Amino acid sequence: MTALSLDGVSVALGRRPVLRDVTLAVPAGTLVAVVGPNGAGKTSLLRALAGLAPASGTMRLGGEDLARIAPMARARSIAYLPQRSEIAWDLGVRDAVTLGRLPHGDPFSGATAEDRRAVDAALDRLGLSSFAARPVTALSGGERARVTLARVLATGARLILADEPTAALDPAHQLAVLGLLREEAAAGRVVLAVLHDLALAARFADQVAVLHEGRLAAFGPPEEAFSDDVLRKVFGLAFTHATVDGRRVPIPLGPT
């Protein structure tokens, strides 16, 4: 059953088109890696789904037209982790993660038992429970990145949009975060994650959306989306391949 569908979705920044006529359908329980060169439209796609960039075309989540969903309902349904998500004020880790629960209730009534359970679970999954009382500003860049991801997970949204969730992380935490996103998908959610590491995309994603010059160049399982022709055309590089955990993983060699 299709959980997320896009039909002819386009985005422009001023007069410059950055996303052109993207059409795809994603079933529930799917982790989609969104890949492509810089400027391909990856962030614009996520921002359009989050309601942060005006878009033409139709976007549906669970059959509902996102253009017709009330803002608070949309915030409960879609959790967005932007590319740069700094928490600059002196806020404790637990309080920062609790912000992810705001769409579920009255911000002036305090956290409910359900909110606390969701926050505790997110802190535990990101390995942040021992940091819960510390100010976010006292953490390293990688630890802050995990706090912002914990906030997203605490929302419990049907659709998770993560823009470069592994960018500030060491290899161990990159693997851990992608494992968590795969768990979120396995729980029935749709997860779209922008990734620059094609090897990680091939290893963890159920589907890959390859964007090139604002258009969808390929969409499908990693072994299909990462065909030699697509990789050469989109990235202008020659690739070899390795097999990791039974998956064909592309490794860039150099310009074609």
Automatic annotation (TrEMBL):
Belongs to the ABC transporter superfamily. It holds the Pfam family ABC_tran. InterPro entries: AAA+_ATPase, ABC_transporter-like_ATP-bd, ABC_transporter-like_CS, P-loop_NTPase. Keywords: ATP-binding, Nucleotide-binding, Translocase, Transport. Residues 4-238 form the ABC transporter domain. Transmembrane segments: none annotated. GO terms for molecular function: ATP binding; ATP hydrolysis activity. This is ABC transporter. Part of the ABC transporter complex HmuTUV involved in hemin import. Responsible for energy coupling to the transport system.
